Amino acid sequence: MTQLPPWLTPIYTDLATAVDAGRLPHALLIHGPGGWGETTLAAALAARLIERPNEAANIAAVAHPDLRWIVPEGAGEQIKIEAVRDVGEFIARTPQIAPRKVAVITSADAMNPYATNALLKTLEEPPPNSYLILVSDGLRDLLPTLRSRCRLIAVQPVDIEAATAWLSSVGARATSEHLAALAFEYGGAPERILAALERDESPIEDALTAVASHRADALALADTWAKDATVGLIERWMRYVVRVMDRRRTNRVDSDPLARTLVQATDRALFEQWEALAHDRQLLRGTTNPNVRLLLETRLLAWRDLTPPT
């Protein structure tokens, strides 16, 4: 099995012990803030259940008759009822070559209401030797009735030093400044930081500062960002708004270039910007398939207008 991050090892060990003793619940919900290995843990457990531990790192791509791996897809990146019905039919069958069947539903909070109701029916009477593993970084978005039918497995963040040490151990290469900026933008989540480094991603602080100081074209930046805009981009932006407001509250504006740039913006305007970003995040998570470029244009023009041109 691929080496797990150290904060996941004790959780996995307990789950593996339960598997070997025949005490593992038939439905588990692995949850955490996202980017801390929630899906990695699910993959390791799924591989253990179908007795393919050496393939844990790539288990989602393994063609195996006793494994289903469900991810959001389509407009709004939903998990729809058809996918969940397929899981129900799969779970009802007898294992073919492994001793157990396992279905993993990642981003379980992306299930639409019809899919959730279908899953509840599957959970009512799980057949023997069948396991359902849900993964979510939005636990509050799941129905209480769904949560109550699963054993909750929490993945807790660790301190930034431990996360940074793990990044170094897997070969992440970046300057300390670059790493610190990405760590801030991604809430310290090491797997998200690693993915950003692998994409050769730059922190967005300089771009936000340039637009706010009228040194960069807001529309041009919207065009660039729209090519691969995600909910994550909006969340990174929201963290900077919160940090600017915190710098003001603690009289540390001079230590923050973005806060200095936005010094003429009112507290109310900054809060309204945060609320608008939160609304945009909800739109991107939803099923309406918004015009991402127009959404970013609107938000970046409003960001630019927080400060008067010099």
Plain-language structure description:
The protein has 310 residues and is an alpha/beta fold. It folds into two domains: 9-154, 3-Layer(aba) Sandwich (Rossmann fold), CATH 3.40.50.300; 160-304, no CATH class. Helix content is 50%, strand content 8%. Strand 3 (101-105), helix 4 and strand 4 form a beta-alpha-beta unit. The radius of gyration is 22 Å and the shape is elongated. 35% of the residues are buried.
Q: What's this, in brief?
A:
The chain has 310 residues and is of the alpha/beta class. The chain has helices spanning 9-20, 38-49, 81-92, 113-124, 144-148, 160-169, 176-185, 190-198, 205-212, 218-226, 231-249, 257-261, 267-285, 292-304; strands at residues 27-31, 67-70, 101-105, 130-136, 151-154.
Supply the CATH class of the largest domain.
Alpha Beta
Task: Please state the CA-atom Rg, rounded to the nearest Å.
Answer: 22 Å
SS content category: alpha/beta
The rounded distance between the terminal residues' Cα atoms is: 58 Å
Low-pLDDT residue spans: none
Count all strands and give the number. Answer: 5
SSE string, helices as H and strands as E: HEHEHEHEHEHHHHHHHHH
Strand order of the largest sheet: 2-3-4-1-5
Tally of helical runs = 14
Query: Which CATH architecture of the largest domain would you pick?
Result: 3-Layer(aba) Sandwich
What CATH calls the topology of the largest domain is Rossmann fold
Net shape: elongated
Q: In percent, how helical is the residue content?
A: 40-55%
| Portion in beta strands | 5-15%
Mean pLDDT: 92
How many structural domains in the coordinates?
Answer: 2
Major β-sheet profile:
5 strands, parallel
Tell me the name of the CATH homologous superfamily of the largest domain.
P-loop containing nucleotide triphosphate hydrolases
